[in-house]
């Protein structure tokens, strides 16, 4: 007798995807035009009607195939592909690394603005002396 849980429990997969999307059962129920108890029943069901699965997938922002093929291991593998060349998590789609300090750019801009104001004051003083 096997004690392992079945890998194809669609309800659990829906529940996990919903949780990963930071969505409460109430929010999913509202998107589907039903109530929280119905969502709870769906998430406890091992199988779900294909048409209902498509409707749920749309509300979750995924495909029905994504729900059917979902596993926590695949999610971990997916997110592990988002590393840059340094092994750190990158937030750039192509793995690009920022090669300048943004604060240096802010300071540079500020200095340019201050210099422009000084030039303006100098020009106005010169203008007033001429009159």
TrEMBL record:
Residues 14-67 form the HTH cro/C1-type domain. Gene3D superfamilies: lambda repressor-like DNA-binding domains. PROSITE patterns: HTH_CROC1 (PS50943). Transmembrane segments: none annotated. Pfam families: HTH_3 (PF01381). This is XRE family transcriptional regulator.
């Amino acid at each position: 007798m096997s004690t392992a849980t079945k890998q194809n429990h669609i309800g659990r997969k829906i529940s996990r995807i919903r949780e990963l999307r930071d969505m409460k059962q109430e929010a999913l129920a509202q998107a589907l035009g039903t109530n929280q108890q119905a969502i709870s029943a769906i998430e406890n069901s091992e199988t779900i009607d294909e048409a209902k699965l498509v409707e749920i997938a749309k509300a979750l922002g995924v495909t029905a195939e994504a729900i059917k093929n979902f596993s926590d291991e695949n999610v971990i593998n997916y997110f592990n592909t988002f590393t840059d060349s340094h092994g750190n998590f990158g937030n750039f789609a192509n793995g690009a690394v920022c090669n300048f300090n943004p604060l240096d750019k802010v300071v540079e801009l500020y200095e340019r603005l201050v210099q422009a104001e000084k030039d303006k004051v100098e020009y106005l003083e010169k203008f007033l002396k001429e009159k």
